[in-house]
Design a protein that fits this description.
Elements: H1 2-13, H2 18-37, H3 46-62, H4 87-100, H5 103-129, H6 133-143, H7 151-155, H8 158-178, H9 186-197, H10 201-221, H11 225-242, H12 244-256, E1 258-259, E2 273-275, E3 283-285, H13 286-301, H14 308-323, H15 330-336, H16 340-343, H17 351-365, H18 373-407, E4 417-419, H19 424-431, H20 437-442, E5 443-445, E6 452-453, H21 464-473, E7 480-484, E8 488-495, E9 499-502, E10 511-515, E11 518-520, E12 526-527, E13 533-537, E14 540-548, H22 552-582
Parallel strand pairs: 2-3
Antiparallel strand pairs: 1-6, 4-5, 7-8, 8-14, 9-13, 10-11, 10-14, 12-13
């Protein structure tokens, strides 16, 4: 019996699908604490993104699509967020929420997908760079348990989803350096960049920046530089077509509205800090530091043996890692480029680039022949133990958080969130309810992101978020909201006298208001500092209809992006069919 078991394990070990099965098992292991406790972990960005996904879920289920104006989420305030923040991903997540029916199952499925995709992405990066299978697999298992990657499951940070795809983008960069005859993969690269753009624009910008050194080296060594430049042009063109909906919406909104940026953060105070066991988005534990120190030591000690690819990838990784620390002059950078405080916010975000680069370099280092055999076994045992410890640290943190949720703190971070009901039992029930909108009624987000501003704000007490709380959150229950066909939001209220009223919705340059059957132009109503409309209501029942009028050229770009994805899908289906027939 024991012999049969060992034989099965050996066969499994040598199967081509062994690495993906281990990565899938790792993804399932990360879910075990939540499966046992039944906890839904809602972190710093949870309520914000849950509003986005609830919006698209309701649009799909009610067949009342509204690409710009949000008519269900964010207290039905008509805000524009999804159009400039991961639009296609929001609709995919909304569809997943419809299938899963509640936030608990939604989180389990989405977290599993992020772990599995990121693990395979990291494994393939190491393989393409030239690493052997086992070191590549260990690098993948380490990657999915450190830095920003686990942050999707525990904090709902979109950088965690961007981090899952970035190794695949870096792999395209590796091909640029390795394959001198055909350095560019225009369709693959364009697809990855477009997918990132439909998820998280900041991750797309970081992917673009990290590809620049790969592209320059690849261009220098390319057999035909003109062909590489032409393929690059094709990749850029396809990316622009596939992401036309994102940049088109941004051009339209930012050209006519002064939109509130995400909150500013001190670049100096959000650099990487070392801890002993915990591994959070702003910290790195001593085990990972030890791994990177070993990689650096081996590169220097055996400087004649590592490949040029290893030196290039590791050198780039250590450079980016340096930029995440206080050793980098962030004080000077923040004074020179103040906009980075709201766009980048946290220099530790750059670990989404540093970690895959350094782990890829480590896999390449441990893929070199090790003599004698005894030393090779010791190295492999040590690598497995360190990987196991890092996995244990991550799963332990998830377990602690899952347990806390069942005892007291249901929502871990209340920054920018107002609770209408503070009962832990009610909040836990809402997370498992078949009606996901109940949670968003109990926990209301007053983030000021992308609100249209009529004035600048100089103090935090009168910030866009606080005004949104005062003008929308505190009054929206006094109004009745109905979503009509044609992306229209109807707001009804009753006034005892003829008077001015601040309606708890948000208007933009392209917003169209119809009050009691009369269409208003922009000069016929006032606007607060966050562009909530101020209208005259007559005595009795009043009705206001809010609609975002999409410019014709923007509608054309929306259709262009959708058509481009359909054409690419048909092209991919054609090649899959050809591959299937060939094999």
């Amino acid at each position: 019996m024991e012999g049969n078991f060992i034989t099965i394990v050996k066969r499994w070990w040598y199967q081509r699908w062994f690495p993906i099965s281990i990565i899938v098992l790792m993804a399932l292991l990360a879910l075990v604490p939540q499966l046992i406790t039944g906890s839904t972990i809602v972190g710093t960005d949870g309520i914000f993104h849950f509003n986005r996904f609830y919006e698209t879920a309701k649009q799909i289920s009610n067949l009342k699509l509204s690409y710009f104006q949000m008519n269900y989420g964010f207290q039905q305030s008509g805000r524009v967020i999804n159009a400039v923040y991961g639009p296609y991903f929001a609709y995919i997540a909304g569809l997943l929420l419809i299938i899963c029916r509640n936030w608990y199952r939604f989180q389990l499925v989405s977290t599993f997908a992020v772990y599995a995709i990121s693990g395979w992405s990291m494994f393939r990066l190491a393989q393409i760079a030239g690493a052997r299978r086992n070191p590549s697999l260990l690098a993948a298992l380490i990657f999915v348990n450190v830095g920003w990657l686990p942050r999707w499951g525990v904090d709902q940070n979109m950088s965690g989803i961007g981090a899952a795809i970035l190794p695949s983008v870096i792999a395209c960069g590796v091909v640029m350096v390795k394959q001198h005859d055909r350095p560019m993969q225009p369709i693959k690269l364009a697809l990855l960049m477009a997918v990132l753009c439909q998820i998280h624009v900041l991750s797309t910008l970081m992917a673009f920046l990290i590809l620049i050194p790969f592209w320059l080296v690849g261009l220098y060594h390319a057999n035909s530089r003109s062909k590489m430049i032409w393929d690059t042009t094709i990749a850029v063109g396809i990316t622009l077509l596939l992401s036309a909906n994102v940049w088109g919406a941004m051009l339209s909104l930012y050209s006519h509205n002064s939109l509130a940026m995400p909150h500013t953060s001190s670049l100096v105070h959000n650099t990487l800090q070392m801890t002993w066991l915990e591994d959070k988005r702003q910290t790195v534990n001593w085990l990972l530091i030890l791994i990177f120190a070993i990689q650096l030591g081996l590169l220097v000690a055996k400087r004649k043996h590592p490949s040029k690819m290893n030196w290039f990838i590791s050198g780039l990784g250590f450079t980016v890692l340096w930029m995440t620390t206080l050793l980098f002059p962030w004080q000077l950078v923040s004074r020179s480029v103040p906009g980075l405080s709201s766009m980048l916010q946290f220099p530790v975000r750059l670990t989404v680039l540093a970690y895959p680069l350094l782990l890829c370099g480590l896999a390449l280092t441990f893929s070199q022949p090790i003599r004698p055999i005894r030393q090779k076994k010791l190295v492999m045992i040590g690598a497995i133990l360190v990987t196991g410890l890092l996995i244990g640290i991550n799963v332990r943190q998830i377990a602690i958080t899952s347990k806390q949720i069942q005892h007291h703190r249901v929502l871990r971070h209340l920054g920018g969130t107002s609770l209408t009901k503070r009962s832990p039992e009610q909040l836990r029930a809402a997370l498992n309810s078949q009606h996901p909108g109940i949670l968003l009624q109990l926990a209301e987000k007053h983030s000021g992101d992308y609100l249209p501003l009529t004035h600048t704000f100089k103090n935090e007490s009168n910030s866009p978020g606080s005004l949104y709380e005062q003008q929308v959150l505190k009054h929206h229950k006094s109004y009745k909201f109905m979503v009509r066909n044609g992306s229209r939001l109807e707001v009804q209220w009753r006034a005892t006298t003829q008077s001015q009223a601040v309606i708890p919705v948000v208007t933009y340059y392209n917003s169209l208001l119809t009050l009691n059957g009369k269409t208003l132009n922009r000069s016929q109503y006032g606007r607060t500092r966050i562009s909530a409309p101020i209208v005259w209501s007559h005595k009795g029942n009043n009705k206001l209809i809010l609609k975002y009028e999409t410019p014709t050229w923007v509608s054309g770009l929306l259709w262009l992006a959708a058509l481009s994805w359909l054409v690419l899908g048909a092209y991919g289906t054609h090649w899959i069919w050809r591959w299937y027939r060939f094999h």
